[in-house]
Amino acid sequence: MSTPDHDRLLIIDFGSQVTQLIARRLRELNVYCEIHPFNLVDDAFLDAFDPKAVIFSGGPASVFADGAPMPPASVFERGVPILGICYGQQVMMHCLGGQVDRGHGTAEFGRAFVTPARSKLEILDGWFETDQDREQVWMSHGDHVSRIAPGFEVYGTSPNAPFAITADTSRRFYAVQFHPEVHHTPNGAKLYENFVRLAGFKGDWTMGAYREEAVARIREQVGGGRVICALSGGVDSSVAAVLIHEAIGEQLTCVYVDHGLMRKNESEQVVGMFREHYNLPLIHADESDLFLGKLEGVSDPETKRKIIGGLFIDVFEKYANEIGGADFLAQGTLYPDVIESVSFSGGPSVTIKSHHNVGGLPERMNMQLVEPLRELFKDEVRALGRELGLPDSFIGRHPFPGPGLAIRCPGEITRQKLDILREADAVYIDQIRKHGLYDEIWQAFVAILPVRTVGVMGDGRTYDFACALRAVTSVDGMTADYYPFSHEFLGETATRIINEVPGINRVTYDITSKPPGTIEWE
Ligand code: XMP
After folding, report:
1. Is there an atom of ligand 1 within 6 Å of 518 CB?
2. Which of 86, 113, 459, 493 would disulfide-bridge 58, Cβ 3.0–4.6 Å?
3. Distance (Å, rounded) from C-alpha 144 to C-alpha 352?
4. 450-475 as b/e, with b when 16 or more CB fall inside 10 Å?
């Protein structure tokens, strides 16, 4: 709760899988919002947060269940607009004197069409204007509302949801059975836009404002202390570093640890970009001999990761000590990593996902954390990066894992295999860029396989490595689909790799989605 100057919207999370999408839709409207699990929202919390509007998320529970998730009763007395979604609608009806019935025969899942039931409702501006007076929506509910609460009226129905859209306009309470935040409710964003407009939000959550406030907050937190930051070249750590540098200048030192597992020319590009454009104190720690030496003969994926993680901490600590230590460690932690999510296994409980890129270090070195991106989603970090002047080519880079090429080289890692992999990866990415596909793909890379296969080139027999191309689309890396390249693209790329990269004579394309696969090979 660190943005007191902005109007704030509170999303009370009842455990829906798509609660984060509500926050995305609102942030796109320049509205500042936070997600908090229902069991942490009490009267004192509401007073402290002082929301200008509230949204109840969906959720998997039933209002009939023992200890069913509920908001504090006082939320209805604050005089602020409330929007209930799916389970949020049922909660609203349950709390305000309506009735909810169990699912039997009326559960709905998937696409449905809502038609208007009465005259226009302010949150439906722009709805029912085309397509024969109906709107496509996405339903996913078991229980359903069977009687609406006093004061509410019905504004939209679907074949299985007679109370698809309901409202008590005098109190500005709105409740819908469907999920306006998902892509499959094509006009859903409009509904949120209308809701925040009628709630009086000014739309003042902009990256320019965020930048100024974040700089002030960093100065206040750090005072005259020293901050150290592990710069990986990824978007998050880069944006965090540039922002902190803007706030405290030379009190920040960045360490770029080169573990010898970076892609072709990557270290030069990252270090060069920072030295040329930002003039921030940056140590380029070339520790490739150390990492590759310790990885020699190791082929188990988890052992590789542990070795790399442990060495990273040792190396970072060594350089931190060299500059005389630091009071703070900067990290590019994002909002999805810190949202406290609702878990219904074994009753309502709170799981806190925390993501420490250099886990273990703060305790070992007795440092506090500076995490200036904790309130942002990935695309907001990109917007902030642009605001801070980072080049688009840098901001749009595909994610690259901390253990680097080690996990793209299944089996034993050798310098020879890494060199071949770097070349093949460079050709592949060049192809993707030349065909204008880079920004459509979430992540693309080559893995070098631990097998040699027989081939024929010119008049000679070859016995070289096989490689696999990987390209996926994804939103957050949690699930992914393989990218449907054309056969022409794949054929052309395979030919280029085999012609241009000595050591590879066979190219395959990985068409596994996640799940069941993972994006990386190890
Ligand atoms: P997987 O392979 O688990 O990867 O489907 C999901 C996303 O996470 C990245 N990844 C990592 N990133 N440190 C990181 O910073 C890691 O150890 C790591 N392992 C996987 C992966 O590249 C993909 O974007």
Report:
1. yes
2. 86
3. 31
4. eeeeeeeeeeeebebbbbbbbbbebe
As annotated, the active-site residues are 86, 179, 181
> What does the block give as tokens for 205?
């959550």
Residue whose CA is at the smallest distance from ligand 1 atom 22: 401
Task: Judge whether 54 and 9 are in contact, CB under 8 Å.
Answer: yes
How far is ligand 1, taken at its centre, from the CA of residue 350, in Å?
A: 24
Structure tokens at 408: 């793209």
Q: Which of 520, 521, 522 to mutate to test the pocket of ligand 1 (most atoms within 8 A of CB)?
A: 520
Contact 495 CB / ligand 1 (< 6 Å): no
CB 179 within 8 A of CB 140: yes
CA distance linking residue 218 with residue 221, whole number of Å = 5
Atom of ligand 1 lying closest to residue 478 CA: 6
Dihedral sign of CA atoms 405, 409, 410, 416 in order? negative
**20-76 pLDDT, tens digit each:** 889 989 999 999 999 999 999 999 999 999 999 999 999 988 898 888 999 999 999
Q: How many whole angstroms separate alpha carbon 251 and alpha carbon 229? A: 11
Structure tokens, 487: 């056969």
Per residue in 377-424, pLDDT tens?
888 899 999 999 999 888 999 999 989 999 999 999 999 999 999 999
Q: Whose CA is nearest to atom 21 of ligand 1?
A: 401
Task: Report, in this order, helix, strand and coil percent for the chain, each rounded to 5.
Answer: 35, 25, 40
